[in-house]
Amino acid sequence: MPSFAQDQTIPMHLFPPHCKARIMQESFAVHFLKVLKELLAFVLFSYTVLLGALLLAGWTTYFLVLK
User: Fold this and answer.
1) Residue 7 falls inside a structural domain
2) Domain limits at 19?
3) According to a count of CB atoms within 10 Å of the terminal CB, is the N or C end of the chain lower?
4) In this structure, is residue 4 part of a structural domain?
């Protein structure tokens, strides 16, 4: 049987003030980690494409010009 947390979200006005700050802080941390993960994935992809382009240019130069 699913729990209440899986079915619905609890409205923020039902939380006491000290809990709201903690919930907001955790959600910011989760958001920050998600953005960091996306940035790292983009950087890794960019460097992979750059390395592939450099290797392709190098091999093309080797086979077309030097041979």
Assistant:
1) no
2) 14-66
3) N
4) no
CA separation for the pair 22, 28 (Å, rounded) = 10
Q: Rounded to whole angstroms, what are the CA distances from 24 to 10, 12, 18, 30?
A: 14, 10, 10, 10
Q: What is the pTM of this model?
A: 0.55
What pLDDT does residue 12 have?
73
Residue 66 is given by DSSP the state I
31-56 pLDDT per residue, tens: 999 999 999 999 999 999 999 999 99
The gap from C-alpha 59 to its chain's centroid, in whole angstroms, comes to: 33
| Residues ≥6 apart with Cβ < 8 Å to 4 | 10
51 domain residue, yes or no: yes
